[in-house]
Write a structure and sequence with these properties.
The chain is of the alpha/beta class. The protein has one domain: Trna Endonuclease, Chain: A, domain 1, CATH 3.40.1350. Helices cover about 30% and strands about 20% of the residues. The chain has a five-stranded mixed sheet with strand order 1-2-3-4-5, sandwiched between helices. It is globular and about 65 Å long. It starts with a helix and ends in a 16-residue tail after the last helix.
Length: about 200
């Protein structure tokens, strides 16, 4: 089951044209000494199109900078809602396991090795891999691409605002209570409760 941070990351990637896989379990074995997991794995084909929400100006510019080479993009995403240790993010064995599972290149071990100390791989062969962190605070690190949960929420709200009527009409088709509620808020149906500012109630 996804926590809210993983769910936000999942829907951010999905609404940027990706096919995401949440809570991917990486089993202990030859590659991994301990069982681990990846919050979201995602694949994005280069020619994504959709009438509602799949136009060239619908993608988040922060992420779409990695779409420009007309290559298939494989994303390895971690969502951290609390404290975490930078050095424990995107460990080499986990990268190898993830790249193998994405299945976009024949030589997965070589691709994972190339990705170890940089945020994305060389797209010259028609495939690019990207390491992505979603966290509360922005992190400047050459090893991975980072956006904040505030960025994600802003993107989701802007998308739902842009296609306000269509998204509201079809909101119950989204298999996520979080997303249904966010669409409802954007449409103006659900608003945060305002604090009472009148005289105190009498007992």
């Amino acid at each position: 089951m996804m926590n809210y941070g993983e769910e936000l990351a999942y829907w951010y990637l999905r609404l940027n044209g990706c096919f995401p896989l949440a809570d991917f379990v990486m089993h202990r074995g030859v590659t991994l000494e301990y069982t681990s997991d990846c919050d979201v794995l995602a694949v994005r084909p280069p020619y994504v199109s959709e009438e509602i929400g799949g136009q060239p100006d619908d993608w988040d510019p922060k992420l779409s900078q990695f779409f420009k080479d007309e290559c298939t993009l494989g994303i390895i995403c971690e969502a951290k809602t609390g404290a975490y240790e930078l050095e424990k993010l995107f460990k080499a064995p986990n990268l190898t396991y993830s790249v193998r599972r994405l299945g976009l290149v024949a030589k997965a071990d070589e691709a994972a090795y190339e990705l170890t100390n940089q945020l994305s791989s060389d797209p010259s062969k028609g495939v690019r891999f990207l390491k992505m962190l979603v966290a509360n605070e922005a992190v400047q690190n050459k090893r991975f691409f980072c956006i904040t949960f505030e960025d994600v929420r802003s993107f989701l709200r802007s998308r739902f605002q842009k296609y306000k009527e269509s998204k509201f009409q079809d909101r119950m088709f989204f298999p996520s209570e979080l997303i249904q509620n966010l669409i409802d808020e954007v449409h103006g149906r659900t608003r945060p409760q305002r604090k009472w500012e009148g005289p105190p109630f009498e007992a």
